[in-house]
Design goal:
Elements (H helix, E strand, L loop, with lengths): L7 H17 L11 H20 L4 H27 L5 H25 L9
Helix pairs in contact: 1-2, 1-4, 2-3, 3-4
């Protein structure tokens, strides 16, 4: 069993979740409360939660499965933020900032998944 708080990928995903909840989703109009905003915040929370849940698994294969799910949520928030930008809910500056963080988390997850599956070099999880 791993300590999720020691994983760089968890730390980055937690920071991304906080950015989304505190700075991005709050800018959405009230009519998006139960649609795009809800989808975005649930997906952003899903990333660190899946990393945490995967840390409790006994095998690398099981852990990689949860990281796959986290990666899917990363892609989901990528689109939600792009959509929010296209709808002018967030500024270009905010979009570029959150997109950079999303891409960092995505790259770290892909690297860690490859490592756990035995076809990657030693990552910095």
């Amino acid at each position: 069993m791993r300590d999720y708080k020691k994983l760089d990928v968890w730390k980055k995903s937690h920071e991304l979740n906080m950015l989304v909840k505190k700075n991005i989703a709050v800018q959405f109009p009230p009519e998006e409360k139960y649609e795009l905003r809800s989808q975005l915040t649930r997906a952003s929370l899903s990333i660190p939660l899946n990393i945490v849940e995967g840390c409790g698994r006994m095998t690398d294969k099981d852990f990689a499965h949860f990281l796959d799910t986290a990666l899917g949520s990363t892609n989901e928030i990528d689109y939600c933020c792009f959509c929010a930008f296209e709808l002018s809910y967030i500024s270009e500056e905010d979009y570029l900032l959150v997109n950079k963080r999303i891409n960092e988390v995505r790259a770290m997850l892909i690297s860690f998944i490859k490592f756990l599956r035995g076809n990657g070099n030693d990552p910095k999880p």
